[in-house]
Every structure is written in structure tokens, then in C-alpha cells.
Amino acid sequence: MIYAANFKTNHTRKSTQAYLEALNKKLDAKKSEDKVYIFPPMTALDIYEGAFTVGTQNAYPVHNGAITGEIGLEQLDEFDIKTILIGHSERREVLNESQDKVSQKFSFYKAENFEIIYCIGEPLHIREQGFESVIHYLREQFDGIDMHYEKLIIAYEPIWAIGTGRSATTDEIRTTHSALKQVIPDVPLLYGGSVKPANIKEITEISGVDGVLVGSASLDVESFSQMVLS
Ligand code: PGA
Fold first, then answer.
1. Under CATH, to which class is 2-228 assigned?
2. Is 125 known to be catalytic?
């Protein structure tokens, strides 16, 4: 299983250090085949030692340059960061990142051999139109994306389940993952959206779920490690 924690705009450099220290102690008990990823805010990026991989929540597709407010490859190289989250719905929706921009980022960081957690997910009005619309919408988010990239992990995160406390039902997750698996059979597929200690077991037991991407419930190290060790 893959357990990924997305801190979003939470935690500081100091609290991230304390978190990772505490987490690493807990990870002694983790199954060796399980993988843990942490995506802290950019100000907390650093070289950390432990049984986890630290990645960046975002980066611009440049080595360096004049892109105010963004970071590029040079800033990630400093800390040996080789993992990136691309296409998160908050970047697509709140920051208006187009599919074109998302796919440019993908191609750039793929060329740099990064491990990419690529996020897809539909808004509520599409889910309400029925399953066909959902799958059609999700497939459009594959535009310009190399689905055969060997360092690719996909995270399916229905937007209406993110940060709302209302996870998709196990049936909704099962049917969506199984449809996605037909398109991308060999790519690890995570579920994200209100994953928490109370529902982790039922979600990771669903066939076609290879792991989880967790926001709110990852902010507390006890809660996140409880899920990893569940
Ligand atoms: P959530 O966020 O766990 O708070 O719903 C998930 C995500 O956005 O990755």
C-alpha cells in the first residue's frame, strides 16, 4: 500500500521537522512493502532521513528563471527532491491550472525522471450526471499525460469528497477504480478524499485501491501513522 500525506498550506518548517521525527519512530512498525510519502509546504522542503519520501506539492516546469512566486528544478535539486504532486484539484480549480499547464509540468518533470503522483477527479455536478460522464471527465484529464511512464502513480480524488468529511462510498470507489484500472492496469492507483482512521480499512480493502492520498487526517502524526499501521 502507498500512504501519501498532503499537508497543503498547513504546518511550518519547524512543525514538519517534529512531525517527521515522530513519524519515523512509528514507521519502525510499518510493513516493509508499504510506502509513505509526505508533501509538506514548500518552505519545509529539506533533506530528511527516514522511512518515507518527501515530495513537493507543486513546481513550475523550469530549471530556474523569472517566475515570481514559483520554484523550479534548481530549488528541488538542492534537497534532492525527486517526487512531485501534479494536477491536484485545488490547483486546477482554485489556481485555474489548465490541462495544458498540468501536462507541461508532467512532461517536464517526467523528462527529469521524477516520480509523479498525478491527481484526477470530477466535481459534484459531473458525478450527478452519472457514471459515464464521470469516466469521460476523468479520461479528459489524461490528455497530454504519458500513462505509460514507469514512475507514475495516479490519485483518484473526487472533488466533492475532498476536505468535506464525506468520503466516496466503497461502491463509488470500487466502480471508479475498476473502470480506471481498465485504462491503466499497471499504474498504482490511490484514492483520496476524506480518508481518515475511521474509514482507512474499508478503503484499502477495496480491490483496485493501491493506496491513499490524505489531506486533513494526515496533519496529525498520530492520525496519519495510525492509518499507515492499520
Ligand atoms: P482530504 O484531502 O483528505 O482533506 O479530503 C485530500 C486531498 O486533497 O489530497
1. alpha beta
2. no
The residue from 88, 90, 97, 177 that is catalytic is 88
How close is the Cα of 216 to the center of ligand 1, in Å?
Answer: 6
Q: Residue 213 Cα, ligand 1 centroid: separation in angstroms?
A: 7
Residue 168 grid coordinates: 466516496
Domain boundaries, the chain: 2-228
**For ligand 1, which residues put their CB under 6 angstroms from it?**
6, 157, 162-163, 192-195, 213-217
Assign residue 196 a region (left: φ > 0; alpha: ψ between -120 and 50; beta: otherwise): beta
Q: How far is CA 175 from CA 120, 163, 214, in A?
A: 15, 22, 20
- pLDDT tens digits for the chain (230 residues)? 999 999 999 999 999 999 999 999 999 999 999 999 999 999 999 999 999 999 999 999 999 999 999 999 999 999 999 999 999 999 999 999 999 999 999 999 999 999 999 999 999 999 999 999 999 999 999 999 999 999 999 999 999 999 888 889 999 999 999 999 999 999 999 999 999 999 999 999 999 999 999 999 999 999 999 999 99
Cβ atoms 39, 19 nearer than 8 A: no
177 given a catalytic annotation? no
